[in-house]
Specification:
Blueprint: E1 5-9, H1 13-25, E2 29-34, H2 38-48, E3 52-54, H3 57-64, E4 68-71, H4 78-87, E5 91-95, H5 102-115, E6 119-122, H6 129-140, E7 146-154, H7 168-171, H8 175-190, E8 196-204, H9 211-216, E9 231-238, E10 243-249, E11 258-265, E12 269-272, E13 275-281, E14 284-289, H10 297-310, H11 319-338, E15 342-343
Parallel strand pairs: 1-2, 1-4, 2-3, 4-5, 5-6, 7-10
Antiparallel strand pairs: 7-11, 8-9, 8-15, 9-10, 11-12, 12-13, 13-14
Length: 344
C-alpha cells in the first residue's frame, strides 16, 4: 500500500532543517515543494529528490492533491493555506505559532474537524530528548503538585538574519512568536495544560532598530523596518493556582543563550535543559542528572505526525493545548499594549 503524498509550502530554514530531513528519514513521499522564490526551492528539491516545484501553493494543491501538507511560511499566511489545504482533503502540519489570534486557531481546528482531517502545530521542542525525559518524570507524579514554572527562550545576539521575522505585517510578532512560543508550549504541556486566567506582560524593542546591531549581523535587516519586539516577559496565572514566568529575547546582554523550562513541584523540581530533577533524598537535597540518548527531534516529530495521520497514534500537540498557548500569547500582547494585567 502506497504511503501518503506530501506537499510542502515554503522552502525556508525550517523546511531545510526540519520537514524535508524528517520526511526523508521516515522514507515518506514528498511529491512537491512550493516557494515564491523558485531558484532556492529548485535547489532544495534537487537535493531531496522532490519531483515538482511550484511558485503558487494553490496550483500545487489543486494539481497534486496531496494527502499531507506541511505549512512552513510566515505566520500571517498560515490561516489561508491551512484552511485551503484542509478543504482540499489534506492533513496539515503547520509551523508554530499556528495562528496570529485565538479566533484564527479555533477557526482552523473547527475546519479540520469539519473536514475529518488532522491539524497539528509543529511544536518541535516536545520531541527534544530532555523534554521527553522530564515529561516521563512528570507523568509518574514524582514532582507532586506543579505550582510554578519558568519558560525561558533567551538569545544573547540572535535576531533572525533571514526571512521577514522582523516585520509585523508578515510575522505579526517578534521574539515571543518566534522563540518564546517554543518554551511556552513546552511549559504548558509539562504542567498539564492548565487553563490560563490572567496575564501581565511587557515587550521591548531595544536592539533591532539600532543600525550598529544590524551591521554586526551583516545588515541582514533594515533597522528602520524593524517593528516587532526583541524582548518580552510575562507572568501567567492559571485556574489551578499555578503561575508561569515566561522570558524571551532575540537579543539581550546576558551570559549565554538559554532554552529551558523549569518546573517547581511540592515533591520535586525539574529542568529540561539540562534534564535534571531536584528533590530531598533521605532529608538531603539531591540533584539527579538524567542520562538520555540524543536523537533528532525533527525526525521524531515527523515520524509521530505520520503515525497520527495513519491513525496509529494519538496526537501529542492537541488543539486544546495549542489554543491555550494562543490565548496566553494574545493576552501578553494585549497586556503589553494596555500596560495592565488582562484576562486570558
Amino acid at each position: 500500500m502506497a504511503g501518503p503524498r506530501i506537499a510542502i509550502v515554503g522552502a525556508g530554514f525550517i523546511t531545510r532543517v526540519g520537514h524535508l530531513p524528517g520526511y526523508r528519514a521516515a522514507a515518506a513521499d514528498v511529491v512537491a515543494l512550493c516557494d515564491m522564490v523558485e531558484e532556492p526551492a529548485q535547489k532544495l528539491a534537487a537535493q531531496y529528490g522532490v519531483p515538482k516545484v511550484y511558485a503558487d501553493w494553490r496550483e500545487m494543491i489543486a494539481r497534486e492533491r496531496p494527502d499531507i501538507v506541511s505549512v512552513c511560511v510566515p505566520n500571517v499566511a498560515h490561516r489561508e493555506i491551512v484552511l485551503a489545504a484542509l478543504d482540499a482533503g489534506a492533513h496539515v502540519l503547520c509551523e508554530k505559532p499556528l495562528a496570529t489570534s485565538v479566533d484564527e486557531a479555533r477557526e482552523m481546528f473547527a475546519a479540520a474537524e469539519r473536514c475529518g482531517r488532522r491539524l497539528m502545530a509543529a511544536q518541535n521542542w516536545r520531541w527534544d530528548a530532555g523534554s521527553r525525559a522530564i515529561r516521563r518524570i512528570v507523568d509518574t507524579g514524582d514532582l507532586g503538585e506543579i505550582y510554578y514554572g519558568e519558560a525561558t527562550a533567551l538569545r544573547r545576539m540572535g535576531i533572525p538574519s533571514w526571512g521577514v521575522f522582523h516585520q509585523k505585517a508578515q510575522s505579526h510578532g517578534g521574539a515571543l512568536l518566534d522563540v518564546g512560543v517554543h518554551m511556552l508550549d513546552l511549559a504548558v504541556w509539562l504542567m498539564g495544560n492548565p487553563e490560563p486566567l490572567r496575564v501581565s506582560a511587557q515587550t521591548q524593542r531595544k536592539f533591532g532598530t539600532r543600525p550598529e546591531i544590524a551591521k554586526m549581523m551583516r545588515n541582514a535587516w533594515d533597522p528602520e523596518r524593524f517593528d516587532v519586539e526583541d524582548f518580552a516577559v510575562a507572568l501567567v496565572h492559571f485556574a489551578n493556582g499555578a503561575t508561569l514566568l515566561l522570558r524571551t529575547s532575540w537579543a539581550a546582554h546576558i551570559d549565554a543563550e538559554t532554552f529551558s523550562v523549569r518546573l517547581v513541584g511540592t515533591e520535586a523540581g525539574a529542568t529540561t535543559t539540562p534534564p535534571m530533577v531536584y528533590r530531598n533524598h533521605a532529608g538531603i537535597p539531591a540533584d539527579e542528572q538524567l542520562q538520555i540518548q540524543k536523537a533528532s527531534s525533527y525526525e521524531r516529530e515527523i515520524a509521530h505526525w505520520l503515525r497520527v495521520v495513519e491513525g496509529s497514534e494519538p496526537q501529542i500537540v492537541t488543539p486544546e493545548e495549542t489554543v491555550n498557548v494562543q490565548r496566553i500569547i494574545e493576552a501578553a500582547y494585549r497586556s503589553a499594549e494596555e500596560r495592565r494585567e488582562v484576562p486570558a
